[in-house]
């Protein structure tokens, strides 16, 4: 039927470049924080493109935007695709924006060929996915699925004390629809991988079976600050040396649970942090991830046990607090199949890539069948002004999205 | 002869407490940075006490102060004792100040008993030992012994841009004597240990045979910043994990060369230092010490070789730069013997304690026979407002100083 249909790659690329100019940085990145004037300009541009494509626009109370292309059967829940258009303060052109504009390109392509679908098609963008200006991250989709309340989200404030509620109203995106009441028949999200797996393997399309769960911890090791010269090795209580044992174990635990085990110490603070003073206290973060609940639980148990062992060995005070915990999110088999089948039909090279990062799709998955598609990004880098992707990959991902959505909507 | 002579412990303690009020902090410490108005007030107080004790005062061009009690033979070079009265910004009452006021107490005691010495006795305090406001540390004694020039010292500026030369003139301590031309027959410096060895062993007097040499390094490990979730363990270039291997080796090297080997990583900076980002770069300091040149050289060779090995293993960029190098400083056998004999005569418990920290005596040792005496300080802590020492130990140390100086001066 429509197997020969392809999106317009140069048009999609041009839209990405046009949107990236709003908040564009000297280094080629984008700084368009959620609910700023720049975010408003970006939203207005995308909504204008949506109206130009004949779509009707609904905004909910947390500022999520749904742009609808009618189906033959308007009673069916829409097949939705999207992502977010807010960026990190030193973000790139593709993260989030690509998912939204690729969904728009799907609609433009259907229009070009006057193709009707049974179910309506919608392009969505979710408020404040990045969480750079307001926490928590994935705010719009989180409120939408009931992970936290509208009141909690409204009350979140930026460093200048401005609240989400005030800023939504100020930029004109405080809608009336109750979040979560907007129907979704299925949800697809196309995204750059934000990791190096596809590029490393030379593969164009990543089928995403799941998003990893994660545990975040704060670890504090308390020793005794002392002079580096006069204090013999045997009388030291060196908080950094004890910390290095735990830091290494974080990686050892991840390596024991391949291929999806991840272990990272990203943030370290040493006190007093002076060249000739033995550290009296070290604070560091631990990030553990895996794709199954059972393996993530095992990794959790192992870091807790290891810290207890080091506490006993060293005699130092050590606290380990779990500050965040997301369960793994498997995507819906029918959505995964739709992505896989579209990729096969299109003849792109493909592999499964479990997402290590969170996305709005983990929240939509609580309410509707959801799935994701990844394309490679240069050096696996995102959240960075040098974030980049190849036009051919950007085009391929949008073609997969087109055919996955068509399969669900027709 | 004078074996029954003892200093006046309460008077010494009272002088310590009186001086500590100038720049005294709420937490019981002292903030009296070099060449500030508070330093002037401290200097004026001590010089006033010196004049009250009948001493004549000489100031050299770097602000070092020598207060002289005449000997029978004024042609003999004086037997000098002292230390410094500047403090760290959150320093204590004893570091440096104790050495100066104990020397003053020696003179007061000799005056009390109308004891004449063959050689003159002098009380000295050296400018800017701490180096907190102006670098380098041990500035006054360093210029005195020719380690660096007067011009270099004058040009040193604090964070507000004020120079040593300007500040010396402003507070009235820019003297006329050429540094180094002041004769010294022998030099003794009494100091709190600044380490835990004496307290841990329950010993009152530390005879100091030498000061350790040290090598300071800056180490920079350069990996690849990447997202903690999407990046598989096998594709990481984690600068922190590689750094922990070197950090642990620093301690292992020190432990291979006991009892005076020391190895410390005191300062660590992680970039970008974000919870969910694999560190792309880590910078840290390394501090290696030992008492013999040969052992310190061996430790240096071992850290250089280990870093080269890790560079090869990991494939990461690693630089190791030696930024400071002090040779070990053995003290003069006759001064060591004078301290040991005085301690034995007085009946105090004693042990040898190699100094792990630098002192003005390592510079005077280049020009004249020098020696040091240590007394315990609470928990080995100094450079801290909670720095503390017991009155009985403070008194004992000054008695040892008295008899060591008498042995050299009579």
Account of the protein in words:
2 copies of one chain form a homodimer. Chain A has 410 residues and is of the alpha+beta class. Chain A has 2 domains: 9-211 and 328-409, 3-Layer(aba) Sandwich (Aminopeptidase); 213-326, 2-Layer Sandwich (Alpha-Beta Plaits), CATH 3.30.70. Helices cover 36% and strands 20% of the residues of chain A. Chain A has 12 helices and 17 strands. Chain A has helices at residues 9-20, 37-52, 97-112, 139-145, 150-155, 164-170, 197-201, 239-256, 293-314, 333-346, 361-364, 391-409, and strands spanning 56-59, 65-69, 79-83, 121-125, 186-192, 205-208, 210-211, 213-222, 226-227, 262-264, 268-271, 277-278, 281-290, 317-326, 329-330, 350-352, 370-375. In chain A, strands 1-2-4-3-5-17-6-16 form an 8-stranded mixed sheet. In chain A, helix 1 (9-20) packs across helix 3 (97-112) and helix 10 (333-346) crosses helix 12 (391-409). The radius of gyration of chain A is 23 Å and the shape is elongated. The termini of chain A are close together. The model of chain A has no long low-confidence stretch (mean pLDDT 97). Chains A and B meet through strand 9, helix 8, strand 10, strand 12 and strand 13 of A and strand 9, helix 8, strand 10, strand 12 and strand 13 of B.
Observed structural traits:
homodimer; 410 residues; alpha+beta; Aminopeptidase; Alpha-Beta Plaits; eight-stranded mixed β-sheet; 12 helices; 36% helix; 20% strand; elongated
